[in-house]
Amino acid sequence: MTRHFLRDDDLSPAEQAEVLDLAAAMKADRWGRRPLEGPQTVAVIFDKSSTRTRVSFAVGVADLGGSPLIISTASSQLGGKETPADTARVLERMVAAIVWRTYAQSGLEEMAAGTRVPVVNALSDDFHPCQLLADLLTIREHKGELAGLTVAFVGDGADNMVHSYLLACTTAGMHVRVGFPEAYAPSEAVVADARRIAEGTGGSVVLTHDPEAAVAGADVVVTDTWVSMGREDEKAVRIEALSGYQVTEALMAAAKDDAVFLHCLPADRGYEVAPEVIDGPRSVIWDEAENRLHAQKALLAWLLERA
Ligand code: CP
Ligand code: NVA
């Protein structure tokens, strides 16, 4: 049966570890595997802007011997005249996989239900699972074994990155803490799913409105923009509500001395993170950005093997 990657828990703990191992192997030998030789085409569709996702999928598909077809929704029928299901039926006749950055998670589900080629979520309003594969690869490189590590997210708790941290990190057996203001809480359904996953992996989930309690003794500190794509109209009210949740040097002092800082980028220095932190010695953001390439190549190779 075709496997899709629409949310982080579409991979079991063992499968997630397998993909991360493959990513590390592919990073060490960048052009060693070419499952898309032919070349086969991978459609990469964008309803929203992107730098990292666009470039890493384009370069990654080429590295795998394939041909990336980057589609901007505005210049396609998708989102206007044509449903995700019909688009999927057309694309599956010509491409090996479909990668889609969109708004509603339900669109991805509809697309996946309508096709026999793998569908990959390249960011939705609810999740950013490809980013989390890159983040976990980065954390592994800097900290070793993932299970048992504590990751603290501080900022917009209703963010797609938070939902992905909750699911992906508990899948890896990590402890996840989220520090957020009351108005921006994570989805209760996702928190419940993460707690259920954690029961099986030895991880845990802690939610708090106190940023220092979130970060205390953490191995990894992360944040994300306060103004996600599609929420630009809410900028002023969000900045006010989130102003006590900036990752500053003072906040980082509560984490372990060897804690690393991650941010999926793009970043708004001075809002969610102080420049001294994101540009400081504990920041691993450039490794994290590079790892999008390696993690997604591994994911595509893994999914295609099962398609
Ligand atoms: N982190 C991330 O997904 O970046 P882009 O929006 O540039 O793709
Ligand atoms: N939460 C951000 C992530 C960007 C990669 C957004 O959705 O805009």
**Major β-sheet annotation:** 5 strands, parallel
**Measured on Cα atoms, how large is the radius of gyration?**
19 Å
Largest sheet, spatial ordering of strands: 7-6-5-8-9
**Total count of strands:** 9
Fraction of residues in β-strands: 5-15%
Total helix count? Answer: 12
Termini Cα gap: 7 Å
Give the rounded overall mean pLDDT. Answer: 97
> Percent helix among the residues?
40-55%
- Poorly predicted segments: none
Indicate the structural class.
alpha/beta
List all distinct small molecules, including ions and cofactors, that are bound in this structure.
phosphoric acid mono(formamide)ester, norvaline
Based on Cα principal axes, name the global outline. globular
Write the element-wise H/E pattern from the N-terminal end onward.
HEHEHEHEHEHEHEHEHHEHH
In words, what does this structure look like?
It catalyses: carbamoyl phosphate + L-ornithine = L-citrulline + phosphate + H(+). This is Ornithine carbamoyltransferase. Pathway: Amino-acid biosynthesis; L-arginine biosynthesis; L-arginine from L-ornithine and carbamoyl phosphate: step 1/3. Helix content is 42%, strand content 14%. It is α/β, with parallel strands linked by helices. The strands form two sheets. It has a five-stranded parallel β-sheet with strand order 7-6-5-8-9. Strands 2-1-3-4 form a four-stranded parallel β-sheet, sandwiched between helices. Strand 5, helix 6 (160-171) and strand 6 form a beta-alpha-beta unit. Helix 1 (13-28) packs across helix 12, helix 2 (52-63) crosses helix 12 and helix 6 packs parallel to helix 7 (188-201). The longest helix is centred in the last third of the chain and has 22 residues, at 285-306. The protein is globular, with a radius of gyration of 19 Å. The termini are close together. The structure holds phosphoric acid mono(formamide)ester (CP) and norvaline. The site of norvaline (NVA) has 10 residues, from helix 6.
